[in-house]
Amino acid sequence: MVKYATALRLGTAATEAIQRRFTKKNVQHPTYKAFAELGKAIKTIFLCHYLHDDALRREINEGLSVVEQWNGATDFVFFARRGEMASNRREDHEVSMLALHLRQNCMGPIRWMIQKVLAQPH
């Protein structure tokens, strides 16, 4: 476990590559099972902190609200093809998402200009 944790920490191995190594042919490796149990323990510790600390809960909920607002705007802007990517290629997905973020970032100044024009007396 230490060898794989070190590789993950140093970035010399991808998480997916390590997982694939342990789950070949639907036979789970004992190290994989140990990592799964460690993950459960870490999650339980975090949940205990979350339930005990009001400030942590508020911080997480505020962050989630920001993300949900961003995703709602993304869904509105990315309306073509019901929000589905047209390609299965990772590069095409990346270009689509970058274009989407560019459009979203341009909407703020455009909205400001529209409000400025609408506020002028006729």
TrEMBL record:
Residues 1-108 form the Tn3 transposase DDE domain. GO terms for biological process: DNA transposition. Pfam families: DDE_Tnp_Tn3. It comes from the Bacteria. One of its GO terms (molecular function) is transposase activity. This is Transposase, TnpA family.
